[in-house]
Amino acid sequence: MIRQEWFSVQQSAEYMGLSRRSIDRAILLKKNGLANNDLDIKLVGNQYRIKKSSLDEIDTIITYGRRNVLSSNA
After folding, report:
1. Domain enclosing residue 56, as ranges
2. Contact 19, 10 (CB under 8 A)
3. What are the tens digits of pLDDT across the range 6-62?
4. Predicted pLDDT of residue 64
5. Phi, psi dihedral angles at 70 (to 5 degrees)
6. Residue 74 included in any domain
7. From CA 46, how far away is CA 43, in angstroms rounded?
8. Would residue 46 count as lying in a domain?
9. Is pLDDT above 90 for 73?
10. pTM (two decimals)
11. CA torsion sign, 63 to 39 to 36 to 32?
12. N- to C-terminal Cα distance for the chain?
């Protein structure tokens, strides 16, 4: 059995039960140092990858400022 350590943005969205757009926003906030500091992301070519273990460990994913907070425990 192959274990996948890094997810694409789409795979991350499906894994977390969120939209791709929400994950895109979460990555943007992470890149700008505004939120989601626990997400482990890397750029592969022109696509972002998110480490599965960081998705498992994060309590909430912030997608827009302080108004919209999506809980991964929902």
Report:
1. 6-69
2. no
3. 999 999 999 999 999 999 999 999 999 989 999 999 999 999 999 999 999 998 898
4. 78
5. -105, 125
6. no
7. 6
8. yes
9. no
10. 0.79
11. negative
12. 29
